[in-house]
Amino acid sequence: MLIFIRPILTASTSLSQPFQVDGLLLVKVNTEKLIQGALDLHQRQPELLRLLAGDQLIFSRGEVQTTLSRHQAGINPGVGNQSLQLETGRPIEGVLAQVLMTYRTQAIVLLVVIGLMVVVINKLADKVVRPLKLLDEQRAALQQLVQYAMQAHQADEPDTLVQLSLAIAQSIGRQPFGLYLLRSDFFGGCELFGALDQSTQSLLTKHHEALNHQASLSLFTDTRKDLHLFPIGATGDYQGFFITRRTNESTQAEQALMVLATLLSSALRQYRLNARLHQLAHLDSVTGLPNRHLFNARYKEKLANFSEADQASHFGVFVVDVNGLKFMNDHYGHQYGDQMLIEVARALKKAARANDTVARVGGDEFYLLLEQANESVCAAFAARLKNQCRDLQMTIDDEHLPISFSMGFASTDKDSLKHLLLLADERMYSAKKQHYQRQSPAGD
Question: Which residue numbers delimit the GGDEF domain (predicted)?
Fold first, then answer.
């Protein structure tokens, strides 16, 4: 119970004191009713209630705890200018629930707005972010293709080019790829399907014959929409293909992979052209043996690396001259003269070892370079060569014509390093002279 004392004032006739106190009015206020009147009936009863007049505590119910959210509000008991403070305390979770209940309509609207914003952001991601990501992937693929184009035309061996191409395809497509290349005059071909799944490998093995022709390959892949094929080479110059499973990744990278196939085709054609030019520059067109240019390069290398003390660096040189080539050309025609040269080339290659060099240096003359050979090794080779070619012949219109040649050799262990070829040539001419002394002149 609160008691308020209020003075009763009446008007006075005195100018200096216009009011006078006629008595005191006592007002009783029920504390519980005052507090309940200040509380919101729709809210839970607080765990802490305190009524304060300034710093003076008038009423208290409950204990002050740190876990409570405390709030003060002013109340007017309606008695003069008296002012009181009502302090309430509720649990924090209760406060949050109360706020949500109070503002539940606004909260629902806010949640709906947030949901709509999420939908809009996802739509924007589809239209803006994902295309930007795709653009970044395309830019990275372009950089890889530019680097590949430079590396591909610098590759010395087709096997290096093949491995590089497959790695780039898998990097751009971001999934396993297979690579198939046809065999050619200068390349043994390849069949790299190991990264593909087993069912695809089995399918390609079953239809292996179709892989060698672009038309049959197209018919085959038209029935398999789950496979993504990238042909290498244009129509009429089919060279092979890249293959993978058709996915979103392979479809997105389709243009870059087609460019890769075109670059690989160009690199293979360049390699084939270089190989052909090398062949023309270093191989004899009639016999296919190394020509004078290639022999001289290898001979100079042997001279530069020669050491008298190193037995493995010793070598021998042979000069071989075909007997009767001019007569054959004049009487039977150059096509038979070429056939005679081919037969001699075969005989020399058959007698020589794999690491020896057999070259046709022009006309009717051949040079041989025997690796790790001294005088006795050269003599043994000369004897073996004569024995193997004792019955060498060719047939023209049922006429059997014998083929013979004269030879001379020199070796680094017995002869002057500076004059090896000259000495071998002189010895060949000496043997040739002896041959014609034993034979009737045939026009050479």
Answer: 313-444
